[in-house]
Amino acid sequence: MLADEDEDDYVSPTSLEDLVLLKGQLRASLADIEFHENAVIESLRPKTPAEVDFVRRHLQEALAELEAAQPPEQQPPS
Question: Which residues neighbour 67 within 8 Å (Cβ) at sequence distance 6 or greater?
């Protein structure tokens, strides 16, 4: 039989039924992880005009640094 979800130990599946159960547990775990990942991504999005301006300013500064670091023969035409 498979280990309970609360246990850290993994028991190797020994039957088709065990594999089916494991696959279901993995799918449920993946869905839970994706739900939490989406919640984190959403929480990190800028929500106010000030936050948007802050992110835009830092992105523009980062782009300027990249352009300055690019060798002259590879710089895009102005």
Answer: 75
Annotated domain spans of the chain = 16-71
Total count of residues recorded for the chain = 78
User: 68 burial class (0-12, 13-18, 19+ CB within 10 angstroms)?
Assistant: exposed
pTM (predicted TM-score): 0.55
Distance (Å, whole) CA 3 – CA 1: 7
Yes or no: say if 20 and 36 are a contact pair by the CB < 8 Å rule.
Answer: no
Q: What is the pLDDT of residues 8-52, one digit of tens each?
A: 666 677 888 999 999 999 999 999 999 999 999 999 999 999 999
